[in-house]
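Subject: Sanity check before I submit

Could someone independently write out the structure tokens for this chain? I want to compare against mine line by line before I put it in a report. The sequence has 277 residues.
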Amino acid sequence: MASQPTITPSSPVLVRTEPPPLTAELAHHLPQPSFWPILLAAGMGGVFFCVFLVYAGMPLATLLVALAGLYTVYCAGGWAVTIATERRKHNPIATNKDLIRGFFFFLASEAMIFESYFEYYYFTRFKGHVWPPAGMPRLETTLPAIATLILVGSSFTLNWSISSFMKGKKSAAKNWLLLTIGMGIFFLGMQGFEWGYLNGVMGFHYQTGAYTSVYYLMTGFHGCHVTVGLILLALVYWRLERNEYNQDYHYSLKAAEYYWHFVDVIWVLLFFTLYLF
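---
Independent answer below. Compare away.
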């Protein structure tokens, strides 16, 4: 009969312990599972696919673009609400750092998309011996220059809005923010007027050639970003009215600021590329 082992006080004893529960400081970087990113990615892919259908001449393709755009905005809003709801339960300072870092990665990915458009433009431009191609009208610079000054000026008004908020002057912050939104809407109106003039009066159609198609592609894609930026700024204004921000809890305010400055910088590059170079 085998002898049983004995445990003496000096014998090592292995004790299985459960891990400590996650605190807010430890769990701030652990988001809950969400289906919104997949739905948002599908919507964005749908927008680009529908734009391709527009170029292919498919009937009702423009309507599909609008529906896909509305669906994408809805998914982006749903994801934003989910993030805002989750982060209220976590450490706001640590969560802000993570979200800002992630947002800069998002802006970097957007910059790569624009970089591909610039690369295509310059490749097409230097490949041809004459630019603009023969028979193409030269783009007027006066109206775009005014629009550029307005959009660049909106960056300053937005900075003043953020500065006023950080100083506790919420009324001034809302006024500057409303002015920024108005300037952005005015910029889009000027862009739309130029599109209508070029298309209806000058015969500058997107199907005419590479020069016209790249112009509408780059300015149209930028216009979509301005529209998104205006939506973000409008949401920020709505949250300012509801007093949902404080000195530690204002991530969406900073995200909208960074996004708007990004949109402004891209337009300055577009202006010099399309109108002056």
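---
OP: Matches mine. For the report I'm noting this point. The chain is about 75% helix and 0% strand.
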